Amino acid sequence: MHEDTRQRLNGLLNQLVVVLAFSIPVYRKWTSIAAALVMILWLAEGRFTDKLAALRRHRLSLAILAFVGFAVLSLAWSADPAAGLRDLTKYRYLLLVPILATSLRADFHRRVENALLVGTALSLAVSYAVFAGLFRLRDAYPGNPAPSMSHLDYSMVLAVGGLIALARLLEGGRRPGQQLAWAALLAFVVGGLLINIGRSGQVAFVGAALVVTPVILGERSRRAAAAGLMAVVVLLAGVYLVVEPFRARVLDGVRELDAAATQGRYNSNQGKRVAGAIVALDMVRERPLLGAGVGGTMERFRELLAERHPELQAIASWFPHLHNQYLQTVCETGLIGLATLLVILAVLALGPHATPHARHLGVLLAAAYLLGFLGDPFLRKQLPLVLFTTIAGLASAPAAGAVEKTGSSAADPGNP
To answer: Is residue 413 reached through a cis peptide bond, with omega within 30 degrees of 0 on the bond before it?
Structure first.
């Protein structure tokens, strides 16, 4: 291929990654189209020898390969490998990590990040309008104002957007106006988290904020880290005390968990998750190392439900999946598969990272999804998965100069 053509393809790929990031909070169809075009352009761009050489030393791509590879291997013992193949097609979005590592130019990193934040702000403006009763949009209404996806998925988008704004605020800047803008965006997104009903994103934001604040401020001094952590705790406590709907959601969740654990009352949002976990743990005891295999998990789940827990059938027989990424993974691919998932999060947080900001992105994303996975299997859901891989790609991307502006890879993206 002529080098000019390769450069044009790489430039178009980079522009489409920006479109992809903007689309995640805004419109699912744009996300699907943009992601597919990015993958096609990456293949058309060529340079496979250079790309593979770089990816052999890119730790996050290797961790993802281990996770997906073992899931593919589990088809050998799955009761329904055809269903397993359909499930595995969702993991194609994990390809965005090696794509960004080998083809995204350094001057596009902030553009991609900013596009995600702009898309988040625009979708959130619609969410506020729906919440205020100004209009309804598809399935969104004042009691559930998520405008472009399910409330659980939307809460994770807001959590990650808010955490990026928090990181940019804590990193500091030379212009006070810039800091004010980041503070305003952070407040805008946190307000959106409070009016939306997805607990997963709320838990993810709170937990990750408690992690990322001392991580960033600790680069200055321990005193700054301690002061920042204390400030976050005070602010979160204030929000809990002042914002009644948020406090009610927290207390409702605690009551539902207590009723399930102490009284066996599972007919509630959290109670259904507990019921599913009871059956899932039986599955883990059966095949602790290898799991039931991708595709055969929910079939075996329903069999055990009928055999050992008939009293829970009315509660859990309809589950399309387990409402917890860790349980979903360990039931599908056992403790080995769970270990590969945890390695992905560990590599994301620990690096190596090309810049301090990339490190902050890795830490906040790992912490957010570490907690968010408790509420839903977000790696099985398109938009949270694309969000994860896009930001993970930025966090693990090479330093400036490693992917040259000519579109050729010149350095190792995993070890800057």
So the answer is: no
Strand partners, 403: 409
Are the CB atoms for 338 and 373 separated by under 8 Å?
no
- Residues 3, 404: contact at Cβ < 8 Å? no
pLDDT at 255 over 70: yes
End-to-end CA distance of the chain: 29
Query: What 3-state class would DSSP assign to 378?
Result: helix
**Residue 144 Cα distances to 127, 219, 373, 402, angstroms:** 9, 39, 21, 44
Give 14-33 as a DSSP string: HHHHHHHHHHTTT-HHHHHH
Give me the residues paired with residue 241 across strands: none
Q: Is 140 helix (H, G, I), strand (E, B) or coil?
A: strand
Site of tokens 């860790």: 326
> Which pLDDT score is estimated for 404?
53
Q: Is the pTM of this model over 0.90?
A: yes
| Single-letter amino acid, residue 31 | T
Cα 153 from Cα 375, distance rounded (Å):
10
User: How far is it, in rounded angstroms, from Cα 31 to Cα 20?
Assistant: 5
Q: Could you report the per-residue pLDDT of 283-316, keeping only the tens digit for each? A: 999 999 999 999 999 999 999 999 999 999 989 8
Q: What does the pLDDT average to over 87-101?
A: 95
Residue 1 has pLDDT above 90, yes or no: no
- The beta-strand segments (E) located in 212-305 are none
Cα 333 from Cα 74, distance rounded (Å): 6
Query: Using CA atoms, how far apart are residues 203 and 334, in angstroms rounded to an integer?
Result: 26
| The dihedral sign for the CA sequence 391, 6, 58, 344 | positive
On the 0-12 / 13-18 / 19+ scale of CB atoms within 10 A, 280 is buried
Domain boundaries, the chain: 3-252+322-396
How many CB atoms are located within 10 Å of the residue 141 CB? 14
Average pLDDT, the chain: 91
Alpha-helical (H) ranges within 351-378 are 356-372
* pLDDT exceeds cutoff 80 at 209: yes
Q: Which residue blocks in 264-355 are alpha helix, DSSP H?
A: 269-286, 297-308, 313-316, 325-350
Q: By mean pLDDT, which of 135-144, 156-165, 382-391 is the weakest?
A: 135-144
| Distance, CA of 166 to CA of 209 (rounded, Å) | 8
